[in-house]
């Protein structure tokens, strides 16, 4: 690989903020940004987990910093974004919500899911705008889902209480639409806004029965691993995607094509 090709994927000198930094997919994406040279603000509400991942990064020479606060609290958002002086990359990865089909979903589930996925992403964007407008490489990446595009196949879930929830897909679909809206409004200011729709990426607590069903349904006959999001997140964060704006990059092994 030539230096020219390597350079377009480099994030040297850039600063990135990622919400949900220690989650199932968050840690791997955070690591990819740091490995590419970015200084990464690791956001979440659990200070213990943030300290653990931050130490892990620093122990191998990566640049990271803890940003422990609730992204649904605008006062905390304002406080954080007033404390920094530069930002080039924003990754909205945080999500909050449980499982269960429509029969097992409450109004509060829908509100909470939307607040964390969409409202918080919008507010983070607004508070980071003053920095993104000054950056010559501004990139905002929203982590959506294949279930923001298609419905879960209810037949592969063990029971109604463990089915992927309707509020999850609804909030992720809204995030994809918000991505397109922001991309069209702010593209002229040099701010690119894109989304990634992963899946299936079951976490460690998923049952063997569900994991097997997901694997069998995948056209690649395999499940996604967190490390397989490193390439997509780096692509959208770097100059390699300098003309990509308003796109939804699907990383699902062909799930939504079948």
The percent of residues in helical segments reads 40-55%
Number of helices: 8
Largest sheet: 7 strands, parallel
Secondary-structure class: alpha/beta
Question: What is the number of strand segments?
Answer: 7
Mean of pLDDT: 95
Question: What is the 3D shape?
Answer: globular
Low-confidence stretches: none
Distance between the termini: 34 Å
Strand content: 5-15%
Order of helix and strand elements from N to C terminus = HEHEHEHEHEHEHHE
Strand order of the largest sheet: 3-2-1-4-5-6-7
Report on this model:
With 258 residues, this protein is an alpha/beta fold. Helix content is 40%, strand content 14%. It has 8 helices and 7 strands; from the N terminus they run H-E-H-E-H-E-H-E-H-E-H-E-H-H-E. The protein has helices at 3-8, 26-35, 47-59, 74-83, 107-132, 166-186, 208-217, 230-237; strands at 15-18, 39-44, 64-68, 89-92, 139-143, 192-198, 248-251. It has a 7-stranded parallel β-sheet, sandwiched between helices. Helix 2 (26-35) packs across helix 8 (230-237), helix 4 (74-83) runs parallel beside helix 5 and helix 5 (107-132) packs parallel to helix 6 (166-186). The chain is globular and about 50 Å long.
What is the compact description of this entry?
By secondary structure, this protein is α/β, with parallel strands linked by helices. The chain is 40% helix and 14% strand. Strand 2, helix 3 and strand 3 (64-68) form a beta-alpha-beta unit.
